[in-house]
Design brief:
By secondary structure, the chain is mainly alpha-helical. 57% of the residues lie in helices and 10% in strands. It has 17 helices and 12 strands.
């Protein structure tokens, strides 16, 4: 089977009118992977966008003749199989990316990507865009509130996809926690046992409400750990990922290493944001934790007082144990603060209470 890029140019030869052929090439981006609008082509030829649309339709009609469709049948079969394998539905850009393996072996595609050979990859995607447009079994569904643009071989798959995604969104809303890919797919399988892993993954890819962050975690698109806005959200992602308190300088380093952007994060900026944001708690010298982990703001003395007020009089060992669960300080620091007679009193049984 020939490379799709080559076969696409071969079938264009059935179009006798050169301007019609050129319009098809430009509309589908067959030359360089860049699709041009009706308006842009119309301005170039000095004709209306409606006239360009008519020329495009004439060209596509010529390409739908039996001889051309026979040549494209093997490619239609591959596209059909791929879509069927993915639950009869695939996000448009994902589908084009998937199909580059037909144009180039996987290693060659990776080499082109790494060596700025993206024009060749884009031409491959454009060739399949034309084939999908010509094929009778394929239908493009435009972007909606729920999904990105998709191609499908069965529009009823959209209902299945929406049911799947709605259930996963409901789970995220109730649990308020991100999931790695394997756990998300396992959840989808638990909710819908008949759904294949590839189908579930395809539906999630197409969904607008669910997104994956740079660390590989899935969640709702509006969550700060999925779509971070500024360094404070990035700091939240870092701490959530690491799962333990970190010094603000370490948080800054990890932001720049794992969540890079055009704007570098600076230590002082990160420190200032951590101080102001109630999601973070200072638990030691420059060490910050997430409040959702159970840490509370305040001095060591304030932490001791809060623990005693909540649980009643406690022995020294219990107080130290509970404070160290909330603050990253040395045991001796807790004991020194506990000796403050203006704040704490010790009873006959050796338990400490807060002075009134």
């Amino acid at each position: 089977m020939q490379n799709p890029i080559i076969i696409t140019y071969e079938i264009l030869e059935v179009i006798s009118n050169e301007r019609t052929k050129e319009v098809i090439v430009r509309r589908f981006g067959l030359a360089d992977g860049r699709r041009q609008t009706l308006e842009a082509i119309g301005q170039n030829y000095g004709i209306t966008r409606e006239r360009v649309r008519q020329i495009e339709e004439n060209g596509l009609a010529a390409l739908r003749q039996a001889e051309v469709m026979r040549k494209l049948r093997p490619y239609f079969g591959q596209i059909q199989s791929h879509l069927t394998e993915h639950g009869d539905l695939r996000r448009e850009e994902k589908l084009y990316d998937d199909l580059t393996y037909v144009c180039f072996p996987v290693k060659e595609a990776e080499r082109l990507q790494n060596e700025n050979g993206s024009v060749d990859l884009a031409r491959c995607r454009s060739a399949f865009y034309l084939m999908l447009t010509l094929g009778d079994n394929f239908e493009r569904v435009a972007e909606s509130d729920d999904f990105h643009p998709v191609w499908t071989v069965d529009k009823s798959s959209l209902k299945v996809a929406k049911k799947t995604v709605d259930s996963l969104v409901k789970h995220f809303d109730s649990k308020k926690e991100t999931l790695k890919n394997e756990k998300l797919l396992a959840l989808a399988k638990q909710l819908f046992p008949e759904l294949s892993e590839k189908a579930a993954s395809s539906y999630i890819d197409a969904a607008k409400q669910i997104e994956q962050n740079r660390l590989g975690y899935f969640g709702l698109i509006h969550w700060p750990e999925i779509s971070p806005r500024g360094v404070k959200d990035k700091a939240y992602i870092i701490l959530k990922q690491v799962g333990k308190p970190l010094h603000f300088s370490e948080v800054t380093r990890l932001i720049n290493e794992t969540l890079p952007s055009d704007r570098q994060a600076y230590v002082q900026t990160v420190h200032n944001e951590l101080i102001k944001d109630p999601r973070f708690v200072l638990v030691g010298r420059g060490l910050y934790a997430l409040k959702e982990w159970g840490y509370e703001p305040g001095t060591v003395s304030q932490t001791i007082a809060e623990i005693i007020k909540k649980e009643g009089p406690l022995e020294k060992v219990e107080i130290v144990k509970r404070v160290l669960q909330k603050r990253l300080v040395k045991e001796n620091t807790v004991l020194i603060n506990l000796q403050n007679r203006k704040l704490f009193a010790r009873d006959a049984e050796g338990r400490y209470n807060v002075r009134v």
